[in-house]
Design goal:
alpha/beta, 309 residues, six-stranded mixed beta sheet, Rossmann fold, DNA Binding (I), subunit A
Length: 309
């Protein structure tokens, strides 16, 4: 094959790279790669170079994708009212590149949250020993929610041996669907709850951590500890953009057969656009006191407080 036109080809490659704005390409000739083609932006050390802007930065995340909108100010105001992906500039199955990159970045964060593990030092800080549900691993946990609602036989024995029996409040912490929620929020919310409950004169059971945990495990836990109220701090299902939200579930004397209708919930506990964990801790204590005062939770508590208010 003739190579007489290779200088012309190299000139064309350099010109195209200059048009694309690739750093490190000079008109007189950039660094040469295999075959003489310019390989701009690749350091000699072989380190990875990402030559795209970060799509998760606030200005990039909130940028309008609609070209020449009829009412730019109105569209900006609309997009500012929600974290939903509005004004992306295209409908249908072929999103624009910026929208796709942001989606992929946010999806990666959610996968990290779902498949991550709560660090041992986070548990150790609050003397949380670890037990597991009947879900053998994360894959089974995601496919079999029912197994995440039941303690393993070993876990029941451990809880029976190490936990106080019959406290006013039993606190449990579970990874749920976001390890990041526990890692990022537990240090703020947990001390507020414990201090508040003690100030209210309530006895607190031995706290522990539940791996591969679902909300319904509260019923199984109380078969062992027989608390008046079980409080479960658990990682919420992550969304695209916010993957570290925690929920606080409470139930008055939970037992097998009880459902969400007999529980109370404070959700979206996060510093990223939700309820601040410090503030949420105060809400939890207030709701616990109200629950114990009326001897009911969930729908029944709403009915009782509605008739007395």
């Amino acid at each position: 094959m003739s190579t007489t036109n290779s200088p012309d080809l190299e000139a064309v490659v350099r010109a195209v790279l200059r048009e694309l704005g690739v750093a490190g390409t000079e008109a007189s000739g950039g660094p040469a790669g295999p075959g003489g083609a310019a390989t701009a932006g690749a350091p000699s050390s072989g380190d990875l170079v990402i030559d795209l802007p970060d799509p998760t930065l606030p200005e990039a995340r909130r940028a309008l994708g609609v070209v020449d909108p009829v009412d730019p100010e109105g569209l900006r105001n609309l997009c500012a009212t929600t974290t939903a992906r509005l004004g992306v500039g295209r409908a249908g199955p072929r999103p624009r590149t910026a929208s796709l990159l942001l989606f992929q970045a946010d999806h990666g964060v959610t996968q990290d949250a779902i498949y991550g593990e709560v660090p041992e030092d986070v548990k150790a800080r609050f003397d949380l020993f670890t037990v597991r549900t009947r879900a053998a691993d994360r894959a089974e946990y995601l496919l079999r929610p029912d197994l995440g609602r039941l303690l393993s036989d070993e876990a029941r024995a451990t809880v029976a041996e190490r936990c106080v029996h019959g406290p006013d409040v039993q606190i449990c912490v579970g990874d749920g669907l976001s390890a990041a929620a526990i890692e990022n929020n537990l240090a703020d919310i947990y001390p507020v709850i414990v201090q508040g409950l003690r100030s209210a004169g309530l006895s607190i059971g031995t706290p522990f951590f539940i791996e591969n945990c679902r909300v319904g495990v509260m019923n199984d836990v109380n078969r062992v500890v027989d608390a008046k109220l079980v409080l479960l701090l658990i990682g919420e299902r992550p969304g695209l953009g916010i993957a570290d939200a925690m929920s606080a579930y409470m139930g008055f004397h939970p037992e097998p057969g009880k459902t969400d209708a007999e529980r109370d919930l404070i959700c979206m506990i996060t510093t990223h656009g939700g309820t601040n964990p410090l503030e949420a801790g105060a809400f939890v204590v207030d709701l616990v006191r109200k629950t114990l005062q009326h001897g009911a939770s969930g729908v029944r508590l709403r009915e009782l407080t509605a008739t007395t208010s």
